[in-house]
Amino acid sequence: MSDTKHRSYHHGDLHRALLDTALGMLAADQTWTFTLREVARRTGVSHAAPYKHFEDKDALLRELARIGFVRLEQAMAQALSSGPPSMREKFVAGAQACIAFAQHNPGLYRLMFSADADKGADPRLHEAAMATFGVLLRLLEKGQQDGSFRPVSIPALAAASWAQVHGLAMLAMNGQLLEEKVGPDPVRAALDVLLDGLCCKV
Amino acid sequence: MSDTKHRSYHHGDLHRALLDTALGMLAADQTWTFTLREVARRTGVSHAAPYKHFEDKDALLRELARIGFVRLEQAMAQALSSGPPSMREKFVAGAQACIAFAQHNPGLYRLMFSADADKGADPRLHEAAMATFGVLLRLLEKGQQDGSFRPVSIPALAAASWAQVHGLAMLAMNGQLLEEKVGPDPVRAALDVLLDGLCCKV
DNA sequence: CCAGAAAAGTTTCCCCTGTAAACATGGAGG
DNA sequence: CCTCCATGTTTACAGGGGAAACTTTTCTGG
Q1: Does the residue B5 lie in any domain?
Q2: What is the residue-averaged pLDDT of chain B?
Q3: Does residue A22 sit in the same domain as residue A86?
Q4: B93, B46 in Cβ contact below 8 A?
């Protein structure tokens, strides 16, 4: 039993169980202000048990954030691959996947981008965040190579795109993109404004 | 003495003093995770005194956020009025003012846009946030009238612009807009991408 | 001018949280 | 079988938010 580190001793992979409980709590609530004791309680262990699996509360939060980035990366990557062929439409699909993720997992999304999950303090978290970012980067590079996107500095494109998508996700989570105000598809409309600047003129 | 509610009794406007202390703490730190007791301590009163001026901690946070929005509105409005005449340049000036505000008051900015300062729970906070948003709205309307910006739905333009500015502010605060990665003026470069879509073609 | 009354502050209290330390347990290897 | 270590549990402590009771000012009306 040495292939994975967390196997089954007393509880049977409490590490995973705690993460699952916490993820469940995050999914339910708009905020991620759960307490470590509550997680332990719902998992059916004593309030000190988590400390055998996570150095402190922040370590658990960072691990949750990391899982969130992995999931977001998968969601975005899948949206890109199964989307329409046009680069512009791929971009929209990826952005919508990110925004949908935020709306369906507001607590987790907020945690991922909060200062409490300090990416600098955890190489694994940083790596996961960069991998997610990489999905966007690769799309921009490919789109630039095939002439869909303008030949501007990739980092500038990436910063603009990422700011836009993340900003829209935030607005959407806060319910500030109401249809009666912004029209039938607010996200699409906002993305089109950016894409008109991003794409080459037709 | 019935014109304003908080005058001077024992302390002499403890209401304001608490806000000032908290603002000072917010300015110093990257995060706004201060405690109410710490604010009271630094103001030189007992830990229960604040409850005579704020219903609870959240009420204080909301008031701080409200002040933040007022300041941000002033900063952006001033940037617009004292900036160059071109609509496009005005937009850039306003955006840079917002981003600079975020960088100089990261704790306050994070508080303003965190879920803890629930705008729905406080009409005054909501009003202040809307007023700040109004600066952007009026600029877009004016720019559209004089033909600088495209005749797209104003809410769509606003959503895109706001998402972009707020997203860039977040990235800037997190130190993810480094010059060596994005070039000499990362914000400008990213804004230009958006503005190329926002402005009418030349 | 002098009671109240009400405002503003303080103390005390309770329950919660994060976290450390001491203690218990049970399964794996000698 | 027995011992060790990973895994849990109990106990303990500092600190926070907030309620309640008490005290001290300041204001107000008679």
Answers
A1: no
A2: 90
A3: no
A4: no
